[in-house]
Amino acid sequence: MAATLSYPSELKYVKTHEWVKTNGDGTATIGITAFAADQLGDVTYVELPKPGGKYKTEGKFGVIESVKSVSDLFMPVSGEVLSVNDRLSSEPELVNNDCYGHGWMLKVKLDNAAELSTALSADQYKEFIVD
Amino acid sequence: MLVVNAGNIDKDWQWLQKFAPNFTDIELINESDKTALLALQGPKSAAVMKDMAGEQAASLPYFHYGHSTVGGIKVSFGRTGYTGEDGFEIFVDGSQAADLWQQIIKAGASYGIEPCGLGARDTLRLEACLPLYGHELDDETSPLEAGLAFSVSLDKTEFIGKDKLLTQKKNGLKKKLVCIVSESKALPRQGYAIKTAVDEDPIGLITSGSQGIALGYPVAMGYVPPECAAIGKQLYIDIRGVAVPSKVVARPFYKAKK
Question: Which residues on B lie below 8 Å from A63 (Cβ)?
Fold first, then answer.
């Protein structure tokens, strides 16, 4: 199953199963990985923070829930929330269907883009989830 | 024959053995380890049963029990289940369970049959408001509290627990199982507190909660004092620190089309 899931090489990943995409202007987009979405099963609810909230790396920024379980969402990088994906409140299934696209969660203003140098590459993340 | 919750075989067996000596004409045999039970469930289960075992097997009335042969395998079966849908529970010798499984999957292929585990069963039984041991039922809950009065005949001359149930009936119940729908998309889960007002102390706990798959919204069951159990009663479920407006609804949440 996991072998069929994709991990775009232009993204960075963290061990709590979130991805980060830097947008080149000091901002980044954040979501959860295909592995995480697959493990959760059908997502029924996503609780996201309000814009303006400031979070440190590994800080809890929200909650994601599926029929199987409820899990916390953690910041893969420090920053201030610029906007959240409001569509997820009525269409949480976007996380399952398109986790790197329409299923994105946050847009943040990065505190320090250099922090991402310690995040995992797609290949490193793939190795991590096999273990 | 008794079909007990598989997780309670030892406990139920010990309980039966404790009382068996009071009867002279009873022999207890525990066949659990060599008996398998496969549940064929869903609106098309009778059609699958007919293809496998014939018209007579498929027309077994609800809650009746029969015997048949499926592809050379001897089975016993009831028109029963725990999904809230039409269906059959098929008993087979454990050594032939895998064979029977293959036959069912093959016979059901053209009807869209899917293998399901206990997770799927759990959401189905919840929508049908069927109580489950470890959730709505435990050693300390009576059938009257759990809404199972229909399963107990208080007119019988004697049975274990009769006095206790009569006393409960006379003095009133301390708690009652209710079906609850909440306004949030967050799921109420087992152990979450039920309140009558945002800043009040809990009056009860959720025993089961999940997404209602057929309904498309969260549903839950839990125990509350009888005065809070009326249909339409406004309640709150504490979902991770947020008191979510909820209300008591009629059971079941979902009724299969017959």
Answer: 186, 240
CA of B78 vs chain A CAs: smallest distance (Å): 30
Closest CA to B143 of B157, B161, B124, B156: B161
Domain boundary at B74, B96, B116, which?
B116
Considering the domain architecture, whether residues B104 and B160 belong to the same structural domain is answered as: no
CA torsion through residues B55, B57, B63, B64, sign: positive
Whether complex ipTM tops 0.90? no
Phi, psi for B16 (deg, rounded to 5): -65, -40
Say how many residues make up chain B. 258
**How distant is the Cα of A44 from the closest Cα of chain B, in angstroms?**
7
Q: What is the pLDDT of residue B258?
A: 65
Residues B215, B165 share a domain: yes
Q: Please report residues of A whose CB lies closer than 8 A to that of B184.
A: 45
Q: In A41-87, where do the E strands start and end?
A: 43-47, 54-55, 60-66, 70-74, 79-84
Burial class (CB in 10 A: 0-12, 13-18, 19+), A23: exposed
Domains contained in chain A, CATH given: 11-111 (2.40.50.100)
Query: Which mean pLDDT values do the consecutive 10-residue runs of chain B (258 residues) have?
Result: 92 95 92 96 97 96 96 96 96 98 97 93 94 94 94 93 95 96 91 95 96 91 97 96 95 85
Tell me the pLDDT tens digit for each residue of A9-33: 999 999 999 999 999 999 999 999 9
A70: chain B residues, CB-CB within 8 Å: 187, 189, 240
Measure CB to CB from residue A63 to each of B123, B211, B240 and give the nearest one: B240
In a domain, B41, yes or no: yes
Residue A3 pLDDT class (50, 70, 90 cuts): very low
Domain limits for position B40: 31-116
Number of domains in chain B: 2
pLDDT at A2: 45
Q: Enumerate residues 196 to 225 of chain B having a beta carbon within 8 A of any beta carbon in chain A.
A: 210-211, 213, 218
**Are B176 and B236 in the same domain?**
yes
CATH of the domain at B207: 2.40.30.110
